[in-house]
Specification:
With about 240 residues, this protein is α+β, with helices and mostly antiparallel strands. The chain has helices at about 1-20, 30-40, 40-60, 115-185, 190-225, and strands at about 25-30, 70-75, 80-90, 90-95, 100-110, 230-235. The radius of gyration is 41 Å and the shape is rod-shaped.
Amino acid sequence: MKINLNFICASLLAVAGITFARAEQLTLSRQQCVEIALRDNPTVKVADMEVKKMDYSKKEVIAGLFPTIDFSANYQRSIELQTIRMNMGGESQNLKMGSDNTWNMGFSATLPIIAPTLWKTISISNTQILANLESSRASKLDLVNNVNKAYYALLLAIASHQVVKENYDVAVMNASIYEKQFKAGTASEYDVLRSSVQVKNIEPELLQADIAIKQCKLQLKVLMGIDSEVDIVPDSSLPDY
């Protein structure tokens, strides 16, 4: 029973640790978001890998201009030599042909002197590398622009949520005041209903503001290439800009 209890406690601690890890919160500035995106965004990684790929392809083509050296060696051991029987002077004699050991060695070297196809391929590779570099730079600029837009959109969503929340709190307070006044006989039922309707009208706006914050955070996390379980909190507010 004690062993089972220890196992259950260990399992609960493990689950709690996983939950805590999933609930990780990052407080980031706009510049930090841009740096993380440039480092971890999949699109930027693919663009950089395309540049490296073309660079390796160019090196492979350039290797065709280098001299090629081939060396070969062969050894053969004869278990039994070929025997020829000849009749010489009325006597039969056996003659063996060949040798017991045979060595063969070869060496060759080639160097392309005129290779217009390779030269043209190298020129095309240089152009392709420049094109990939420009594409990678454009991808990074677009990423920085999108991260900045997403960060500012998140600040705007948070500020809008604060405004709606303040209006909601005021409406709830007014509804509570009219409710107390109605019970005291100093307010009409119409005032109570009107204040209650105002609270109900603001609740959808508050829900939309919450959804807008979640959408902005999700978009920012996608651009940054981080896990969706991580919560991002800006280190500044919209009035700071």
